[in-house]
Amino acid sequence: MLQHLRIVSLAALGCIGCLVPTERDREAKPESVVVRSQIPEVPAPIPENHLALAAQCLERNDDPGALPHLRAHVAENPDAVMVRAYLAELQLRLGLLAESRGQYQRFLHDASAKTGEIRNHLVHAHTRIMEIASSQSDHHAEYLHRGIGLILLVQQWEREATPAGESEVESTLVKASEALRSAVEEVPSDPRAWLYLGIAYGRLGQASSAGLAMQHAKRNAAGYPWNSAEHALLDAAPDFDGK
Question: How far is CA 54 from the centre of its chain?
């Protein structure tokens, strides 16, 4: 930007030199009036491309320098889901755990409505939040995101051309149910933990336990900040009559 302005300024000075009369001109035309063209205005600064500037910093391994540019880009483009995920990763590398966790949570909320490749990043985001929660001794969030991440991992396997074997899927769902049971023990009123526990139980063929978990999820659902995918899961869950 500075170089661009410098070039424009030099060009303007060159034009001025062409328009100023020489001594010979004054002698030849003493009574003439020299009309000067108006000096061109320097164009308005071009808005900074924060994403490009962040990329330049990252190429130089300048993570701290890239951070404000990624923050600015996400602030100006809140729907830039994958850039938000990269911002969260950068914040984690720089030790900004609370900020990173918040960005990952926003990513999960926004990406839940997306399809395609973006969905393959959900497991990674849950894993990162689990790791941050563990470092902050937030055991409920640690168990919750471990359980959800494992369920989403199974769903990701099922979308792949060569899905995982049945035994691997079952063992992963068992681990997910164990983590989610620990989450509801930490916070029994958390409807999200109950919702995913119900999903895990349902996939394991434990219909009664799945129904009871869904009942707890619906009982505590009012006012909870569900994402769009969780809304759909909750609405699709059958009511449990307790029998």
Answer: 15
| Phi, psi angle pair for 5, to nearest 5° | -65, -35
170: nearest Cα among 197, 135, 205: 205
| DSSP string across 210-225 | HHHHHHHHHHT-TT--
In the prediction, which pLDDT does 161 show?
Answer: 76
Q: Note whether 194 and 213 are within 8 A (CB).
A: yes
Could you give the CA distance from residue 72 to residue 238 in angstroms, rounded to a whole number? 44
CA 234, CA 194: separation in Å to the nearest integer?
10
Amino acid at 241: D
What pLDDT does 147 receive? 98
Q: Are 90 and 66 in contact (CB under 8 A)?
A: yes
pLDDT at 42: 54
Contact 173, 200 (CB under 8 A): yes
pLDDT in tens, 146-165: 999 999 999 999 888 777 89
Which tokens sit at 144?
A: 């919750």
**Can you state the percent helix, strand and coil of the chain, rounding each to 5?**
70, 0, 30
- Of 111, 185, 199, 189, whose CA–CA distance to 142 is shortest? 185
This prediction has a pTM of: 0.77
Rounded to whole angstroms, the Cα distance separating 154 from 169 reads 6
Structure tokens at 140: 């409920």
> How confident is the model over 89-116, as a mean pLDDT?
94
Q: What is the pLDDT of residues 175-204, one digit of tens each?
A: 999 999 999 999 999 999 999 999 999 999
CA-based end-to-end distance of the chain: 71
Residue 58: Cβ-neighbour burial (10 angstroms; 0-12, 13-18, 19+): middle
- Looking up tokens 């701290």 gives 64
